[in-house]
Design brief:
single chain, 2 domains, seven-stranded mixed sheet, alpha/beta, Rossmann fold
């Protein structure tokens, strides 16, 4: 049993335990267009006697209905961010608000309701998403049954049709390809009509052609159902598959690539994200910090210090060794 705090007493201890488990959060009204807002998010893991900063003041806003890619190399903090947004982890510092929920103040009961009703998960390994002895239709109906809303067969069929599997509703996962299993997984994740769909490397175990088809499905369900889709990946080539690609480096948002033209999503080349389709930005956080791309630092020879100069409507960043150069 947890120890009592100073001046708390036994009754206070039991009240705290009860609130941590059973209390239900009163959801805030979403005041603007953002369904997700992360403010100065910090996550620290303690390993032996060392503290590891997975997130270091990360700030991020995502609009309702957006399809966003969170891109970063191993150890960048992208999986930690996904776990926090999914209610699987709690930030050490800062605040995270998702669809009216305050992630920092969730009770055990809140987390169950949040993960059941607000968030849909699609994991990298298709077998993790599905029950092997159930058909595609039964897999989609399972979350509905667990929620206690019965078996809405019409809605399950509609979802399987939306992901292109109307002819496979009676097949079990072992009878399907990896891409088909992942399509069923998307339908399962949408079964309880979540506001947000999270994908953890959902194309990581698929070939490039099948992966592109999965992203087409994500885009289709985003547009048809107004679902906010967030996909975490290490593959930077997938930036062209989303409305906005956010890159994380060292636990902070580094750059963003925002789609500047509306294309027919069924014909998008998902391996291309060039100047003609996306505008790329360096992100400046609320403290005025920005991350200069590593290739720029190497090319300019900038290490621990840099010189900033304002020239008309521009800011020049120089290496101290090139102080007088233009």
């Amino acid at each position: 049993m947890p120890a009592t705090k100073t001046g708390e007493g036994v009754s206070g201890l039991f009240k705290r335990i009860y609130n941590n488990i059973f209390s239900q959060q009163e959801l805030a009204t979403i005041k603007d267009e953002y369904i997700i807002e992360c403010e100065n998010l910090v996550k620290i893991y303690k390993i032996a006697d060392q503290e590891v900063f997975a997130l270091q003041g990360l700030e991020l806003k995502i609009k309702k209905g957006e399809m966003v890619g969170i891109i970063g190399s191993s150890g960048s903090g992208k999986s930690t961010l996904l776990n926090i947004l999914g209610g699987l982890d709690t930030p050490t510092g800062g605040r995270a608000f998702v669809n009216g929920w305050n992630i920092n103040k969730m009770s055990y009961r809140d987390k169950i309701l949040y993960k059941r009703d607000t968030i849909g998960f699609v994991w990298q390994n298709p077998s993790r998403n599905l029950v092997p002895y159930l058909t595609a239709l039964e897999n989609v109906q399972l979350p509905m049954i667990l929620k206690g809303q019965g078996q809405d067969k019409a809605w399950a069929r509609e979802l399987l049709e939306a992901v292109g599997l109307s002819d496979w509703i009676s097949h079990k996962p072992a009878e399907m390809s990896g891409g088909q299993q992942q399509r069923v997984a998307i339908a399962v994740a949408l079964a309880n009509r979540p506001a947000i769909l999270l994908g953890d490397e959902p194309t990581g175990s698929l070939d490039s052609k099948t992966g592109a088809e999965i992203f087409q499905v994500f885009k289709r369900v985003s547009r048809e159902y107004g679902t906010t889709v967030i996909v975490v990946t290490h593959d930077r080539s997938l930036a062209g598959a989303v409305d906005r690609a956010v890159e994380i480096r060292d636990g902070k948002i580094s750059t963003e690539s925002v789609r500047n033209i509306d294309l027919d999503y069924s014909n998008i080349d998902y391996t291309a994200a060039g100047d003609e389709t996306h505008s790329k930005y360096v992100v400046v956080d609320s403290a005025g910090r920005l991350q200069i791309p590593e290739e720029y630092l190497k090319e300019l020879g900038i290490k621990d210090k840099a010189i900033l100069e304002k020239e008309d409507n521009k800011v020049l960043i120089k290496s101290p060794e090139n102080k007088n150069s233009k």
